[in-house]
C-alpha cells in the first residue's frame, strides 16, 4: 500500500505555539469563522477560488482532502487566518520515485484583515516552515502566487524563501486576465543555516 504523504500531519503533536499564536489542524467548526474573511473580495482576489456564497465555501473547503491540508492560526483563541501545508512528492525519474515520495510541501496562507499589519502571518508561516522541516523532516518547501500579490511575496521573503521562478503571463486571473506568476522555495539546509 502506498502511503499518503499528507497523512503524516496526523502524527504530529498538534497544536503548536509561537510567541503570539496557536497553530492547529482545522475542523468543520472552523468553516464559519473562516468564511468571515475568506468571503471578502480583498481576500479572494488572490486566492485560487472565490466562493459563490457561504454554502459553496463550506462544501468546497469542507472536503476531507482540503481539510487534511488546512491549518488555522489563532490569537487569544480567535482565528486570525489559515494556512495550507500540502505534503507532496518531488519530481523524480520513475526508478527513483520512492526516494522523492513526500519530501516537499507547498505552503499557502490567508489572514483576516482585522488581524492584518501585526506580522501575524509572517509569524505563522515561519512556524509552518519549522513544522515542515523539523517535525515532518521535509527537504523543501515552496509557495507560489500571482506576481502582483506583493503582500504574499513579502512574506515569502521575510521567512527566508528565495525566488526560483518568474513566469510571464502564465496564470489566468478571473478578473484581471493573464498575469505573471512567481514561485519561491526554501531547502531545509538553507533554513538551518539561517537559524
From TrEMBL:
UniProt xrefs under Pfam families: Acetyltransf_3
Record-annotated N-acetyltransferase domain positions: 21-189
Name of the featured protein: GNAT family N-acetyltransferase
Coiled coil spans: none
Superkingdom of source: Bacteria
Amino acid at each position: 500500500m502506498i502511503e499518503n504523504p499528507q497523512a503524516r500531519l496526523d502524527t504530529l503533536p498538534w497544536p503548536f505555539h509561537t510567541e503570539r499564536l496557536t497553530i492547529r489542524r482545522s475542523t468543520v467548526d472552523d468553516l464559519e469563522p473562516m468564511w468571515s474573511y475568506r468571503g471578502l473580495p480583498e481576500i479572494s482576489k488572490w486566492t485560487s477560488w472565490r466562493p459563490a456564497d457561504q454554502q459553496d465555501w463550506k462544501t468546497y473547503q469542507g472536503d476531507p482532502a482540503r481539510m487534511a491540508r488546512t491549518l488555522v492560526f489563532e490569537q487569544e483563541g480567535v482565528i486570525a487566518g489559515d494556512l495550507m501545508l500540502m505534503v507532496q512528492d518531488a519530481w523524480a525519474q520513475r526508478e527513483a520515485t520512492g526516494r522523492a515520495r513526500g519530501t516537499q510541501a507547498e505552503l499557502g496562507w490567508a489572514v483576516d484583515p482585522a488581524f492584518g499589519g501585526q506580522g501575524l502571518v509572517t509569524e505563522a508561516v515561519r512556524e509552518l516552515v519549522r513544522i515542515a522541516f523539523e517535525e515532518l523532516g521535509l527537504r523543501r518547501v515552496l509557495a507560489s502566487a500571482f506576481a502582483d500579490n506583493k503582500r504574499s511575496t513579502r512574506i515569502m521573503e521575510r521567512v527566508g524563501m528565495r525566488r526560483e521562478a518568474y513566469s510571464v503571463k502564465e496564470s489566468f486571473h478571473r478578473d484581471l486576465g493573464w498575469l505573471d506568476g512567481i514561485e519561491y522555495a526554501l531547502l531545509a539546509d538553507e533554513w538551518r543555516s539561517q537559524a
